[in-house]
Amino acid sequence: MVTLLQTVWQGLLLGLVVQPGRAAEALCSEFSCYTLHWGSLSWLEAQKKCQNNGGNLATLKSLEEAHLVRQLLATVPGWEASSEVEVRLWIGLHREKGKCYQRHQPLKGFIWVAGDQETEYSNWAQEPRETCTAQRCVTLQGPPFLSRGLAWVDHHCSQSAQGNSGYLCKFSFQGMCRPLVLAGPGAVKYTTPFGIVAASLLAVPFGSTAEVVCEAQGAKMAGTFLVCKMQANINSSAFEWSSQGPLCASPSHGCRYSNGGCEHQCLELGGGVFRCACRSGYQLGGDHLSCIPVDYCSSNPCQGQCLPHIGGFNCLCPPGYVLAADGQNCVDVNECTAPQNPCQQICVNTWGSFMCHCHPGYQLAEADGLMCQDIDECARVKPCTQLCANTQGSFFCSCKPGYQLKDINSSSCLDVDECQEEPCEHMCRNLPGSYRCFCQPGWKLDPNGISCILDTITTSTFAPPTQGELGDTVDIQPGSDPSMLLSESPVQAELEKIFISQGSTFQPVVLSRPLEAEDQGGDDSAQKTTGSSKQLLYYVFGGVVALLVLLACALILVTYKKMKLKKAKNEAKSAADNYSWVPDQREPRAGSNEYM
């Protein structure tokens, strides 16, 4: 018994192999058609067959598509005759060579021929082979009972299945026409763009043709050809047949035969004349048979988007607008006056939107364009010549030690002339950002960098100071002022005696004035540096000459004093002539003999 049923089933299946000019099984939905073909072909050969007709091997990306394929298989005569017959149908799921098995993905590393890399729906009967060295393709395989369903099984793509094998194609379209309904006896034959010829279809794809042959009193009339085309109204996406109906109508039948071929209502007008009508919210199509929704949006009643529906339409406004009271126009929404300001600082309303701005010193954050973040001016434009400190929304400039800002709002720094405050005991020279102290000849700079102490070596020899004695550049930190003690040299002691004898107090010459600072900046020319060095030499040699003159004057004064003293002694020796001498006894008269 089983063998007999298998033989019958195989005969039915083999009889469905498409032959030229012979109808094949097809099922069309709203935008696509599925066709069933039988034959022992490899996956690549089956895909080429589908592509030659403008399609691909069928994709089953959702449960709805799988249900349509089951409906198509249910139209096969004898499909439910036995549960022992197994079928294999190639579908458009494959994995290229070099692509490996992906356990945790629904498609396990396989992809659809339409280019979709991954979909959520899958219906594997078993796990595919874990190989990367060969191309693998999938068949829809299982028993004929729909209640048990069909599942996916992977095979080698070059394998040609024997027995009840074939493939499923899928064709996509812009839309469909409704099947023709004749108002009298006759027959319809549809020819689809993908080459399938059928006497009946649930939906007829766009571009299909229909041949209608009517019968009048038992005789066939000349055939009428119709084409499924898009409705003439450019604002409509409906599809209709090219010829007007009713088709095969006769006065003897009126509306009694298939409702006169009308989709909604057939109205008897008397005398065997009738016409089709539509329910509220619909209108007759160009074929005077079908009914399509009234396109209330064809007159563009909405300022925004118009959405038609049965019996009317609805208007929608784009983001940033709301529907006005009339239900058709759109009014701008002022987002800046909303209960919660969308911007952190400044909000500016625009048509249909808004813009956020920031206070000076801030910029919009790139993340959302709503928040403001501080601008680090010190890092971006370097606005200060020396030191810059960033603050929230601003910055301020400052200068290094020895410099000061040009004014309170300035970013430039000027050198401070410390020598104007006379920080040095003898001489001062201003430097960029600092100053340097120097001493007169015969003196040397104290370690504090400010005071001068007598140099006993140079004083005794009257040698000019060396470069080292003028001191090096130091970071002046004013400290204690040591007392200036005079040297115990003979010359110095002698000078003290001279001044004391004259009623004067000896005070060494001490200068506390700035030197001519031709070399103030670090960028002065060599000429200025040379000039200042010469001037320093002038001061040094001038001091030596002044000291020599002072010593000469002192020697002259000493010599003069000694000469005056010597002269005074000589005069004292001849002064006895001014005195009267009185004898202490009476002198004898002449001729007397008192002393005798």
Give unreliable regions as ranges: 1-23, 461-532, 574-596
Q: Strand fraction band?
A: 25-35%
CATH class of the largest domain: Alpha Beta
CATH topology of the largest domain: Mannose-Binding Protein A, Chain A
* Major sheet size, sense and barrel closure: 8 strands, mixed
Radius of gyration: 62 Å
- Supply the number of helical segments: 7
Question: If classified by CATH, what would the architecture of the largest domain be?
Answer: Roll
Summarize the structure.
With 596 residues, the protein is an alpha+beta fold. The protein has 4 domains: 12-172, Roll (Mannose-Binding Protein A, Chain A); 178-293, no CATH class; 336-374, Laminin, CATH 2.10.25; 426-477 and 484-543, no CATH class.
What does this protein look like?
- The chain is of the alpha+beta class and 596 residues long.
- The chain folds into 4 domains: 161 residues, Roll (Mannose-Binding Protein A, Chain A); 116 residues, no CATH class; 39 residues, Ribbon (Laminin); 112 residues, no CATH class.
- The chain is built from 7 helices and 37 strands.
- The strands form 13 sheets. Strands 1, 2, 3, 4, 5, 6, 7 and 8 form an 8-stranded mixed sheet that branches. Strands 10, 11, 13, 14, 15 and 16 form a 6-stranded antiparallel sheet that branches. Strands 34-33-37 form a 3-stranded mixed sheet, with no helix packed on it.
- The longest helix has 48 residues.
- The chain is elongated and about 190 Å long.
- The N terminus and C terminus are likely disordered.
